[in-house]
Design goal:
This protein has helices spanning about 5-30, 45-80, 90-125, 150-175, and strands at about 5, 80-85, 85-90, 130, 145, 180. By secondary structure, it is mainly alpha-helical. Helix 1 runs antiparallel to helix 2 (about 45-80) and helix 3 runs antiparallel to helix 4.
Length: about 180
């Protein structure tokens, strides 16, 4: 087993994928031929042997890929990062970035858009936007905003900053965290 950084391992995964693709193309080229056509790989042991060898190579490369992924996952599970005052494992941060952050950001941005659109419409109609505590002074057709818009804007800004910070910290962690493959 050799030690490598996660960054190097991720680069190796790309190389492995290219090698698998190359083997698949090789197999596609030589898996079939007409009986009357001379075996182009006869000197190398024949197409049958070469195709079988390429299939085994793909299996071996897939096992290499699995072992790299397994090592990365173990390192990510066992390595904590602090982002925005929150501590999570890298594995959890990756899930948060992929599954949680986009939903939160989209939801908050949709709320902000909805409020802004309604505000524009209300202004055209001569209606006002009021906070819940001001509703008693409002006209019947005014709009109550049941949300602190400054806090919403700050939440969106903080979430974007957290995602950017996380990206930087993940890159640094990938460059320094070593795995054994």
């Amino acid at each position: 087993m050799a030690k490598t950084t996660i960054t190097e391992a991720l680069a190796e995964l790309k190389v492995v994928d290219k090698r698998i693709l190359s083997k698949q193309q090789f197999i596609g080229t030589y898996v079939l031929r007409q009986v009357a056509v001379r075996d182009p790989l006869e000197k190398a042991g024949g197409s049958y042997q070469e195709v079988s060898s390429a299939i085994q190579s793909i299996r071996d490369l897939m096992e290499r890929k699995l072992s790299i992924r397994r090592a990365i996952q173990a390192a990510n599970t066992g390595t904590d990062l602090v982002v925005g005052g929150e501590t999570r494992s890298i594995a959890d941060w990756l899930v948060w970035k992929r599954d949680v952050a986009p939903v939160l950001l989209s939801s908050f941005e949709q709320l902000q858009t909805q409020i802004n659109q309604k505000r524009g419409q209300a202004q055209k109609e001569g209606r006002a936007f009021v906070q819940p505590g001001q509703a008693s002074d409002a006209k019947d057709n005014d709009i109550v905003v049941n949300l602190n818009e400054r806090e919403l804007a700050q939440t969106i800004e903080d979430l974007r900053a957290k995602i950017e910070t996380l990206d930087g910290k993940l890159s640094l962690a990938n460059a320094r965290v070593e795995i054994e493959v």
